[in-house]
Design goal:
Blueprint lengths: L1 H13 L8 H12 L15 E16 L4 E13 L15 E4 L9 E3 L15 E4 L3 E4 L2 E7 L11 E10 L7 E5 L15 E5 L2 E6 L8 E12 L2 H20 L10 H22 L8 H27 L10 H14 L11 H34 L6 H5 L22 H6 L5 H61 L7
């Protein structure tokens, strides 16, 4: 037991007391920071400016909030400057050529993003500053930056956006801190692609701004993140469904009016477009500018609303009756003659040409004159029938035996009886004139009724044909409108498909 205790004591005696590793770096940090004032600008001459080299590394575009116009990015800043108070001879400190110091112990520029939208305003993570023996300081703080970005929705969803990130010293003017660009643009070598936006470029520019308060300019470096929206998602989820819904509204004109679904289809399509327009409105910011897709949706919605109105008019024409509506002359000329000829439409067994139209109009004028002459002649004949013996009117059959005693006039309203009229009357049994007159009267009523039904059917067929012509006219018109509007929107867009 005593032997083991002695060996343990000897081992402890041989171990080194204290830590010898890092003595040079500890002494170096103590010497550097013992008399260092972090409020002092690190220049030899106070009239000189601290040259600050500034760069930016874009890691990722996290989100583009069009509604609130905020760009969220993952960025590494790169700041380099010389500190005249933090130099040493590396040979005196065990060849230690660089050290890492927290930024709270040394002077660092008060660089901020001017257009920050973050609640803390400065969203960088404070990392150590790499300090070399020649006084070069390198500070690379990462951060999730939220910056304001004016979203231009004119060409949505075929739009490009340019979001600025403006960096500069908050208190030092150009005479105290001179900002320099490390490179003409931001570093995108480690950029992670975004699913919605394609990165085009990240150029940078140095600006000098003079204010009334100060003679020296205030410097800033502005990085412009140029991005382009990937349109494939919006094309297949907004444009294509809108075109399909518009085509459904157009194809509704091919439905027969008796199906009862023409109006309900148009209203359903109108409601569907309203829902799509609300979807677009929830994405874009609230502004008076109308986006391209919003304009397209409004045009299609106007077309669908017009189709609903014309469908009501078509149904009204189709169900008109002869005893309730009389077809105006302009409707007859337009919808029964010229528009069917223009649309190459025809009725069964009747081909509409310019010659047939002119012949029909000419015949109608002749019929009008003939009808007026016939109506005058019919009035005269009706007056003669009232006093004609042996006529088909009832009073002739009521008093058939008084026919031979009526006065005869040559040119008056009475009719002269022939010499054999008496033998003719005596050859038939009594009352035959009454029966014949009643039969003739019924035949006249039946023929008048048939003629009236044929005329009514012809008028109703004219209204139905006019409705069919209007249906075909709306089909062609709204189809052309939809095609032209779609082509115009796609032609006006700066780009159509971006994958």
């Amino acid at each position: 037991m005593n032997s083991w205790l002695g060996a343990y004591v000897i081992l402890l005696a041989c171990l080194p007391w204290g830590a010898e590793s890092g003595l040079h770096e500890r002494r170096l940090l103590t010497d550097l920071l013992s008399n260092y004032n972090l409020l002092e600008r690190p220049v030899v001459n106070e009239s000189e400016a601290v040259v600050l080299s500034f760069g930016l590394t874009l890691q990722q575009i996290i989100d583009v909030d069009e509604k609130n116009q905020i760009l969220t990015t993952n960025i590494w800043l790169n700041l380099e400057w010389k500190d005249a108070n933090l130099k040493w001879n590396s040979s005196e400190y065990g060849n230690v050529k660089d050290v890492r110091i927290p930024p709270k112990y040394i002077w660092k520029p008060d660089l901020l993003m001017y257009n920050s939208a973050d609640e803390a305003f400065d969203s960088t993570y404070s990392t150590n500053v790499v300090l070399t023996h020649e006084g070069d300081c390198t500070y690379i703080p990462p951060g999730i930056f939220k910056s304001t970005c004016k979203i231009d929705i004119t060409w949505f969803p075929f739009d490009d956006q340019e979001c600025e990130m403006k960096f500069g010293s908050w208190t030092y003017d150009g005479g105290k801190v001179d900002l320099k660009l490390k490179s003409p643009g931001g570093d995108t070598s480690t950029y992670i692609m975004n699913g919605e936006w394609a990165l085009l470029d990240v150029p940078a520019e140095r600006n000098e701004v003079f204010y009334d308060c100060c003679p020296d300019p205030y410097l800033d470096i502005t990085f412009i993140i140029k991005i382009r929206r990937r349109t494939l998602y919006y094309f297949f989820n907004l444009i294509v469904p809108c075109v399909l819904i518009a085509s459904m509204a157009v194809l509704g004109f091919t439905l027969p009016p008796d199906s009862g679904e023409k109006l309900s289809l148009g209203v359903t399509v109108l409601l569907s477009l309203t829902i799509f327009l609300n979807t677009v409105s929830s994405i874009i910011p609230i502004t008076s500018d109308s986006p391209l897709v919003g304009t397209y949706f409004n045009c299609i919605m106007f077309m669908v609303a017009s189709s609903v109105v014309t469908t009501i008019m078509i149904l009204n024409y189709h169900h008109r009756l002869a005893h309730t509506h009389e077809m105006p002359e302009w409707v007859r000329i337009l919808f029964l003659q010229w528009i069917p000829w223009f649309l190459r439409m025809s009725r069964p067994g009747e081909k509409i040409t310019i010659k047939s139209i002119l012949m029909q109009n000419k015949m109608k004028e002749l019929d009008t004159k003939e009808n007026s002459s016939k109506s005058l002649l019919a009035n005269v004949l009706d007056m003669e029938d009232d006093f004609r013996p042996g006529s088909t009117l009832p009073h002739n059959s009521v008093y058939p035996h008084h026919n031979n005693h009526l006065p005869q006039q040559k040119n008056g309203g009475f009719m002269r009886l022939p010499h054999n009229q008496q033998q003719f009357d005596e050859s038939y049994p009594p009352g035959i004139h009454r029966e014949l007159s009643l039969i003739l009267k019924e035949i006249r009523v039946i023929t008048d009724k048939i003629k009236e039904e044929e005329e009514s059917s012809a008028i109703e067929n004219d209204w139905k044909f006019a409705a069919m012509v209007l249906d075909r006219l709306c089909l062609i018109t709204f189809t052309l409108f939809t095609v032209i509007a779609t082509i115009a929107v796609l032609a006006a867009a700066p780009h159509v498909l971006v994958t």
